[in-house]
């Protein structure tokens, strides 16, 4: 197989993310950012598009250099300090003034993984909640999986740890008592469970002020949870503030998002700046599909330097690879949708704590999950979509590799190719994002180990990991 890196040239002027539709005005501001924050490497361009309803004369688009400038309560500021969040990321600098403005305005925000999106909407939620009514639901955050819902619940509780009377509940299967129903000011849940609770009159939505949808590209996709999210929205007050967040917004989903959150301010990164800068993106040229497993096992020692996530296409594949690796003496765990909720919670808790270091999963963990120790992501199967998995899935690739390289940390992604279809699929994804991939060969393990360890053990992401090939998207 030809060298993929030599076939994919990095375009000098990769296409920017599609223009946002007609619901926004021409009031558009491009902001060059160079000063790094304490959270992330901020050398990327943020594009803001203000809604028609935004009064330009009020000059709402300003940059804050500290959380204190936002007028947050002392309790929220104390929570940020306790988490060592001393300065906003660039995304937070741009988004928070708009989201916290009064009267509240909708927001569609697209930004790469690990740039502080969750903290941005959590701060907005905590600022909107009246804590003198601790059991009255006032904010709803929707996520695509129980794992992500639990993680967001934990972030809200941590940021709001000094907020007196703050109660945060997870509306996921098996978590809300049928006897009491929802009794919290902030609810984080999955759409199906939220719909059931509202229908059973166990969730009073009449006082909700803000609706957040995380991973909104997936949640609003008509092939995904789009219908459920529409039904949930139709149950809520018409005046609710809607905040949509995702690392990716394909054109057709963005058009739909603009209808879901009308007259929204918009914030996005340019297309070529979407891939995470701290991730060295590599590929392994496997002789045949049957060789992928043996190559995976040879990588095991590198996987356990930190912790690693192995993404596969199907649940059956995850279970089978786990069975074979354990039989060969490797300690791994598998997590996918076939597991019951409590088992999934326990497996993810083990992975977070380091008791488990290698996790095999399907796309259930591709979105949003933040485990700080993840240093490697392996695409055992290249993500595909469409009937018969015929089309490369660039968005899922980006979400998968975003499980490492979080908040400016370094990381490695290795994608396995073995035939023309997988080769062409990865080529398409690399061209889409303007990535120069580093080729690894199963015949040269010294080079493979050197390249991977060089990244994982480095204190900062380097710009260059191989001759004539750069990592990330620059």
Uncertain runs are 4-43, 55-61, 459-474
Q: Per CATH, which architecture of the largest domain?
A: 3-Layer(aba) Sandwich
Residues in β-strands, percent: 15-25%
**Major β-sheet strand ordering:** 1-2-9-3-8-7-4-6-5
Overall 3D shape: globular
- Work out the helicity level: 25-40%
Number of domains: 2
Distance N to C terminus: 27 Å
Tally of DSSP helical segments: 16
Radius of gyration: 22 Å
Task: Sketch the major β-sheet.
Answer: 9 strands, mixed
**Total strands:** 20
Which structural class fits the helix and strand makeup? alpha/beta
Give the name of the CATH superfamily of the largest domain: P-loop containing nucleotide triphosphate hydrolases
Instruction: Look at the structure and give the mean pLDDT.
Output: 81
CATH C-level of the largest domain: Alpha Beta
> Which fold name fills CATH's third level, the topology of the largest domain?
Rossmann fold
Domain Helicase ATP-binding: 98-267
Catalytic activity: ATP + H2O = ADP + phosphate + H(+)
Region (Disordered): 1-38
GO molecular function: ATP binding; hydrolase activity; RNA binding; RNA helicase activity
